[in-house]
Amino acid sequence: MLSKLSKLFIVSGLILGLVACGDRVEVPPAHVGKILTKNGYKPNTVPPSKFRLDPCIFYCDKLVTLATADFGHMEKFKLFMPKDQLNMSFDIRMTGSVNETYIDNIFDRVPPSQDNISVNQVYSTYAQPVIRDVVRRVIAKYSINEIASSREMLSQELFSAVTTSLDGTPIKIKRLGIADVQFPKVITEAKERAAERRELIEQEKAQFEIQKIQMERDLEREKMNRAVAREKAMGQKEVNDLLAKSVTDKYLAYRTLEVLDRMAESENKVFVPVEALGTIGLQQAVFTDQVKQVARKR
Q1: Does pLDDT of 109 surpass 90?
Q2: 192-219: buried (b, 16+ CB within 10 Å) or exposed (e) per residue?
Q3: How far apart are CA 53 and CA 22, in angstroms?
Q4: 137 burial class (0-12, 13-18, 19+ CB within 10 angstroms)?
Q5: pTM here?
Q6: Taking a C-beta distance cutoff of 8 angstroms, is the pair 117, 66 a contact?
Q7: Whole-number Å distance between alpha carbons of 249 and 235
């Protein structure tokens, strides 16, 4: 049987063997790591990978990781607008990332939480105070109406100002813009009333155009009616002129004889005294018959 001393040596050897085998660690994707020793961080960063730490007995090294992936973030604002003397709420939405030039500075100055430095820790430490200050300063220069009508231009100005202010810090901004603007109720109601007035004006313009088209159509119809009446009058005048030139006393006498001749052949005979042949009534009958014949020829 083994003595107590032998057993102690065996257990100690097993413990030393287990301790001498360093921990298995991993730097996940979109991260970098550094080895934290008892004397501080080792100088080199570790890219995404899996490996074992150095064997240790009394003090063991640790792996600290830092997230380097792009991140999206939103800042909410409620700002008093000096030009309008009103409060306005809005969001600033952005996409950013860790500036890899300053990775060593981040490890040296930002304490890890559970062996990891999150991008939120870096953002809140270096970028958030700057962004909130710059956004308030830029937005306060404008009136609410100017912001409502020039949001794209304002977003570009904010992006430029924030980017310049964050130059030389561990955070760089890739995109930034103003969003979800909540105007004061008095401004919203004024805009709604203005929109209603514009809609009424557009409706009046549309109605005027309809009436204009109807009036133009009626005018064209009247022009056409006058043209038709004019043509009819000219045609009647030509008929009258032709009759005035062609119906003479001799022609009327000749036509009178023709009428009498046809009357003689008809069973419906009416005998008229010879003196009545020169009456206006008979002459009118002859004239009417002539008008009908001329009309048929035309």
Answers
A1: yes
A2: eeeeeeeeeeeeeeeeeeeeeeeeeeee
A3: 5
A4: exposed
A5: 0.57
A6: yes
A7: 25
